[in-house]
Amino acid sequence: MRHQPHLLVPEVWAEGVLDVGDDAVRHMTKVLRYPLGAPVTYTNGQGIIGTGTWSGSGIDRGEETRITRSGRVVDVIVAAPNAKERQRFLVEKCQEIGVRRLSWLDARWSSGRLPPPHKAEAWAVGALEQSRGAWLMSIDGPIGVEAGTDVLVADAGGEPIRRYVSASGRMAIVVGPEGGFAPGEIPDDLVRVRIVDTVLRTDTAAVVGAAILRST
Amino acid sequence: MRHQPHLLVPEVWAEGVLDVGDDAVRHMTKVLRYPLGAPVTYTNGQGIIGTGTWSGSGIDRGEETRITRSGRVVDVIVAAPNAKERQRFLVEKCQEIGVRRLSWLDARWSSGRLPPPHKAEAWAVGALEQSRGAWLMSIDGPIGVEAGTDVLVADAGGEPIRRYVSASGRMAIVVGPEGGFAPGEIPDDLVRVRIVDTVLRTDTAAVVGAAILRST
Fold first, then answer.
1. Do A207 and B208 lie within an 8 Å CB cutoff?
2. Which residue, B96, B123, B126, B117, is CA-closest to B24?
């Protein structure tokens, strides 16, 4: 069975045939040699998924449905890891598990340089297409952390995270740099949570913490 | 602050000074230029952690304590992903979150070639040392899956995994290949669980599923 491509095509969508961009056309024709008229799914990254056919230079639009975001809304605020491969892993996995928004934390004791925004977005798009999703994660930052009852901070000395899994509504998890937070960097009254009983790297804590909050 | 090395030194341990092997000596002397007499921690990967000092060619043994395995015992049985980087990610993250045993699944519809055992073990050792752990994950396979009430199979159409999070005792999670299980490959009566509400890759499902079962 041929693997059916799933493409992110940002709005605004034209009537009839969707323009998918030169890179996607090249990939579909040169790499996949995808047959004319074969089925393709597409999404705007904002909840709409369509089933169309490959026109050779774009997608003939077909039936389109709106997918609601399922499960809890989870945001991640994380100090960028140093290694590019860990940054990429973090972006891809957060997209896959359905994180709504990934923000790089503005942390004084972090040495990680942020990935270029177009690169981080490309990682997320790749993961969205691979997992056939309908909701593209947004990526921003560096940002600070504000107080809120729905904000959890990963901390090996904190309370068990499971206590917060069934709480309703939106939730954000903050993961600081390996060196910890600088004094006054985050509000004192945020809830600290322990994720598992072992020491986790920044990227692992962020992905696994978000997944626990997203778990069914 | 200098980062203090944490080294896996498999048993049997000599009295006095521990032999750490040529690679570790080279790393400590050439790469880290670690000072003579400076503190080093070490583990046998079986629950013992010691605090010793660097002798220039080994570790002068110091105080040693036994660390009990904390949290639930979780095993992972997973079809090997294709890409080496995903295999490596899987091994490292499972070690980090404290999985006891990682077994490659003997799956007919899996195209992933297993990593060489010495390589997979080296990934786990690296992650153990990085996360300053006391328990080295074992890696084996390919194996089949036997029936058991403590075995969960990742399946997008299954029951919410959270129902099984607070069950006591040991638990194993099985993650099949992207192409699914071949007929009769796993027992029919195993519990199927949905991890999150999005489609996950093999490696993500294994890591995140294990982390949810390990969550505090």
1. yes
2. B126
